[in-house]
Amino acid sequence: MEENVAIIDLGSNSVRILVIKINFNSSYKMIDQFKEMVRLSEGMWEDNLLKETAIERTIAALKQFKNILKSHNVNKTIAIATAAVRNSVNGKAFLQRVYSETEFNFNVISGEEEAYLDYLGVINSIDIENCIIIDTGGGSTELILVKDRKVQNSISIPYGAVTLTEMYLDGDALKENIVKAEEFIRSIYQQISWLDEANNVAVVGLGGSIRTLSKIHKKKHGFLNQSMHNYNIASKDIHEMYDIITSLKSNELKNIPGLKKERADIIAGGLIPLKVLLDFIGSDRLIVSGNGLREGAFFKHYFDKYKLNGEIVNSVLQHSIDNVLLKYDVDLQHSYRIRKLSLDLYDQLDSLHQLDGSYRKLLEVGSLLHDVGLHIDYYDHHYHGFYLAINSKINGLSYRELVICAFIVGMHRNEDFKQDWADYYPVINQDDYNAIQKLSLFVRISEELCKSQNGNIKELKCSIKKNNVNIIPINYEYSGIELPTYLQSEKAFKKIFFSNMNVKSE
């Protein structure tokens, strides 16, 4: 049964909605998202009271969300309220008013629950074993220590971008106040005994301030088409950007590319917990996650809907690929057959291709996705496939790996694929492109053989004798299968490997 699921996240700084469609075959895709900066926690840090102006802004935004639900025929809504509501003395009255005016029934989650949903959103979409996750929101900061992909410890600290700004950064002595705020957060970290176990691990960051930091970095150093999810930033770059941001007044920050004016006045406060954490545990890098609480809430619902064991995927990459294949209605039996034959060629001709072992995983992905472009049209489906592959959200791959996989898809029919690889320099280099030529050729050979035998070939056996490569297709059901006298890929094989390719019977 198809289902349109909406997740509404009512935070201290913004209220966001995410709409995801679950298809009849269990694949899913995001079909809409929207946010409104409502500053619900504005002015509440001294008395813990939600202020009327902020309440009115928030309810007005939620009324807009009602229209989004109607336009997408949403039949499942998960509404979550976090720090601002749970820390306020008038939160219950506020939610009663929200329900009477919008009919949204919010669940106020604890800091521990918020941290766990953050964890689900990250661990199901970033391939990482050990890390510490930090979510800097408007009114709280969550820290989650992950070991072997499992939560080891977590804590919610009731200070975030808005509260730290109101506590320390509203005055003119900006640098002096920044130091005071840093010392305050450091004193809190010193009381968390298990942070000692996080020494030198990677930090995975989420929240509006951290995503903004990644946008600033990408404008200066990154590749413009690269997704913010799984985006890596070295700690030294973070310190450089942090020093610039904290040296400017909010009206001066608008000139920084990637920083929107509605976040300028709280960006410094939002980055303080991250900067102090990086220093505190000696981490050398930040991995930015585009997924967090909302995606975590979706995964929790999704796994429950399909009665899956646990709430963590076994393999981030495989789960993501399977979702893409189902979403684009790919012939799964054919795709996995091509993967098997392509890997047979790769494994048995390693002395010929001499590729680094890391490329094997990329051949697996590229071979599985090779026909994804058929979702658009048969003609030029390799071009369509390149576009779909590079623009699909395939978790578990770096952007470089995603680009290589997309080129394998694009070049699997012929080596004259017109997308200029130089457009992706320096994401991939000449060595990568040479590897792509070899890997895409393995997919091409596999598909030619598969088509000639109506998909009946189960495996390939290869041998190398001087300048001759013999490929023997195997069909378990019967031997002596009739083989094609010529493959279109033979010419390309000789050009790339300086060897003759011979297809022979067993």
Count of strand segments: 14
Mean pLDDT: 92
Given helix and strand content, the structural type is: alpha/beta
Residue share in β-strands: 15-25%
Number of helices: 19
General description of the model:
- α13 (332-348) crosses α18 (430-452) and α15 (359-368) crosses α17.
- This protein is α/β, with parallel strands linked by helices.
- A 6-stranded mixed beta sheet has the order 8-7-6-9-11-10, sandwiched between helices.
- The two termini are 47 Å apart.
- The chain has 19 helices and 14 strands.
- Helix content is 45%, strand content 17%.
- It is elongated, with a radius of gyration of 26 Å.
Briefly say what this structure is.
With 506 residues, this protein is α/β, with parallel strands linked by helices. The protein has 19 helices and 14 strands.
Give a quick set of tags describing it.
about 500 residues, alpha/beta, six-stranded mixed beta sheet, five-stranded mixed beta sheet, 19 helices, elongated
Note the topology.
Blueprint: E1 3-10, E2 14-22, E3 28-37, H1 52-71, E4 76-81, H2 83-86, H3 91-102, E5 107-108, H4 111-123, E6 131-136, E7 141-147, E8 150-157, H5 161-168, H6 174-189, E9 203-206, H7 208-221, E10 231-234, H8 235-245, H9 261-264, H10 267-281, E11 285-288, H11 293-305, H12 316-327, H13 332-348, H14 350-353, H15 359-368, H16 381-391, H17 399-410, H18 430-452, E12 459-465, E13 468-474, H19 489-497, E14 500-503
Parallel strand pairs: 1-4, 4-5, 6-9, 9-11, 13-14
Antiparallel strand pairs: 1-2, 2-3, 6-7, 7-8, 10-11, 12-13
